[in-house]
From TrEMBL:
The name this protein goes by in its record: Alanine acetyltransferase
Top-rank taxon, per record: Archaea
NCBIfam families recorded: rimI
Organism whose genome encodes this protein: Methanoculleus taiwanensis
InterPro entries the record matches: AcTrfase_GNAT_prd, AcTrfase_RimI/Ard1, Acyl_CoA_acyltransferase, Bact_Acetyltransf, GNAT_dom
Keyword Zinc listed: no
């Protein structure tokens, strides 16, 4: 369980430096500072950080997408700093963003994950996500993406 001091709140521009550091530790092809600032500017309501004793321990960035027929949430980026993994922080961040998407009328949430990232796939399965299809060559190094979805049941 996350410790008592642990909080989830909306991200602010001042958090981006710490988020960049977490991002670099988590991914082989990290988003750069500018992309993170843009995500926050475009979807300020769907970008959250986990914090403990004034330090950012994880973040999640998403956005709402409207297909014309359906409104769904998209998890675009998620990482927890390595020392704080396995304490429930990732799950708290996903649930907070899901709550936001539901409030805004989404019918479900979609995300892409590297086919090699079996740990994250297992994490998302624990949270109720199912694999729906793969997208070939989705990532810069040619790796395929697994698309996973969770449908809200109201
Ligand atoms: C994926 C990630 C965000 C999970 O964050 P976390 O805070 O460690 O996850 P939690 O502690 O909230 O785990 C929630 C559940 O998922 C499970 N889980 C988490 N990581 C797992 C892993 N690597 N393998 C298997 N299960 C895992 C936990 O056991 C827990 O299950 P429980 O509810 O039965 O206890 C974190 O490992 C990370 O930052 N990874 C690198 C970046 C990444 O891959 N992001 C996702 C890209 S799409």
């Amino acid at each position: 369980m996350p410790s008592q001091e642990h909080t989830i709140r909306r991200a602010r521009p001042a958090d981006i430096d710490e988020i960049v550091a977490i991002e670099r530790e988590a991914f082989p092809d990290p988003w750069d500072e500018r992309t993170l600032h843009e995500a926050l500017a475009i979807y300020p309501g769907a970008f959250f950080v986990a914090g403990e004793n004034g330090q950012v321990t994880g973040f999640i960035a998403g956005g709402l997408e409207d297909t014309g027929e359906e409104l769904y949430g998209h998890i675009m980026n998620l990482a927890v700093t390595p020392a704080c993994r396995g304490q429930g922080i990732g799950a708290l961040l996903v649930r907070r963003l899901e709550q936001q998407f539901a409030l805004e009328g989404a019918t479900g949430v979609q995300l892409e994950v590297r086919v090699s990232n079996t740990g994250a796939q297992q994490f998302y399965r624990r949270l109720g996500y199912q694999e729906v299809f793969t997208v070939a060559n989705y990532y810069g190094n040619g790796e395929d993406a697994l698309v996973m979805m969770k449908w809200f049941r109201f």
